[in-house]
Amino acid sequence: MFPLSEKSAVNLRGHYNLSNTTSFTDHEDASGSAVADFKLYTKFWGLQKYLSRAYEVEDSAVWEKVYESMQQIMEAFEGISVISTKDASGNEEKRAIKFLTDPQLFRLQLGDGFFRRQILVQFLILLRHLRIVQKPGEAFDSSKSHTESALNRRVLSLLDSIGPSGKTFGTGMTRAFYWEKHWIAWKANGCKPFDRAPVTFEASEQRRKRRRIGSEEEKTKKATKILLSYEDDDKGKPWALPSEGERTVDLKSWQNSAPTVELIQSQLKDDKDEEDPSLKRKNMKPYVWKTLRVLQRKNFLLVRRIAEERFDLDAILTADKSENDH
């Protein structure tokens, strides 16, 4: 396995392998032993030149020629039944991606599912390239904007018809092209490294030290600010705030103090005669939050009861009282 930073196969300049050419018979045999549709044969194998040099198809005139050939080839595929790609034992056949161009084999090759799949994938790659380089006024002008998408759908439909798992294969190709989009963007941005510097122990320790910095006075001021951010109405608090003078002297002991369950029950009982629901303590979020913390400290098993009763203080206190009675 190569590291992510390895660029030996990236092909940064986008060069094409022009040395790989396809040789085929370009004249019909006078003896009559040649393929029945020799025109289709020459168009089929002649198309390999443009499939291996996609940049030439960006020209409008060349695209017209290639588009016509692709349409005729797909019509031939649709008119011939597909030969299964499975062998006698029912397993998927494995073949080298290299095919003979003998005219006598052409008819059989059109019905070969494995052969057909390779050609259709080449079509998808070409169409993908044209979508990437598409510019106004070039290969896909306004009058032909629909041809590429329609052709792409037709190719995928033919791939789906090739068993076994034709639809799975087509979906896999679509996913591969989605990944390729990010691959191309990575190359266009100069192949920025994926590697990230590891977090050292010293750096983590330094952050912990910075968090510990700060005087007790600053921490006290911050805690006071949080506590005072609740509603100013003392009725919304389960215990009263100390006076301004006491706040700086005995804040720590006041923070640790908490009301008794009896006091909470008494406060909720006093609220039963209140006509306005918004003025009842059990409907005030700060009061409910602090009261639940008091109840959990008294009896940790109430944590389950809190969830069951949906934060209803009356129901929770009633359940707590009945459990204590038993």
UniProtKB/TrEMBL annotation:
InterPro entries linked: THO_THOC1
A biological process term (GO) from this entry: mRNA export from nucleus
Cellular compartments per GO CC: THO complex part of transcription export complex
Chain coiled-coil ranges: none
Pfam families assigned to the protein according to its UniProt record, in alphabetical order: efThoc1
Protein name, as recorded: THO complex subunit 1
Organism, as annotated: Rhodosorus marinus
